[in-house]
Design goal:
9 helices; 12 strands; about 35% helix; alpha/beta; about 15% strand; two-stranded antiparallel ribbon; TIM Barrel
Amino acid sequence: MGKLIIEARINEYAMRDVNPQVPWTPAEIAADAAACREAGASIAHFHARQDDGRPAHDAETYAEGIRRIKAASDILTHPTLGFVTLDAPPETRVGHVVEMAANPETRPDFAPMDTGSTNIDRYLRDEKRFHTTDLIYRNSTGTLQHFAREIGQVGVKHYLVSWNIGFTRQALALMETGAVPTPAFMLFVLTDGEVLAGHPGTPEGLRAHLDMLPPADGSLHWAACNFGGDLLGVTPMIIERGGHVSIGLGDYHYDEIGRPSNAELVARVADMARAAGREVATPDDVREMLAMG
């Protein structure tokens, strides 16, 4: 099965109302990423935030985050393209990655490509109503082809993101056409809570994705997260099936286990992996596994 990659999804757009340990500023993000690296993570996924937690979309704030992360540890960096800019043209959505990649001090290691379009309105189940009714995550095939070209040209690793089987099939097509080179990395975004766009965070939800994959030949590595829910319940299945784990306070506060830090979540996953007989991958291991140079 090989070594287990642990990615820390350290903040997304999570606020601090339930868990005050969500990092926002570049300094906080870098310190949190370093702690996650010490606990066993090899990739840090982050969203740039303002001091009050609001999203920041400018290249300067992202660059400062990456610069500080690189100075604090050797963990691999994975910024977002940002769903708030989803109505912007493709050039704008990927522009900060292209700009940062021009400088080795700020070049990210990964850039994400969500390989389809979906509704991302939040459903308030207790109230039986939608909080919004018109949020659509738009990623046309042409947009994805543009992302693939730009990300590849600046020497950053493509990071495929799938919310459902349609996304997974589109991702595989991008690999087949050569738009995304192999070995590729793909994240399955399971969703619980208010977001209905992904498969539920259950063995059945994950298995639906896995049933779509071709026979394992080293050309694809996959991971799973649970946006809005507890990933730990399916983590043993992920480990057993040869996948990788992407977990953090950006997805879920984990109030039921005492509001842990990101590093504490990573350490828990690392312990589960070792107990199951899988070593935890270092950043250098990830570079080798994904042929990142």
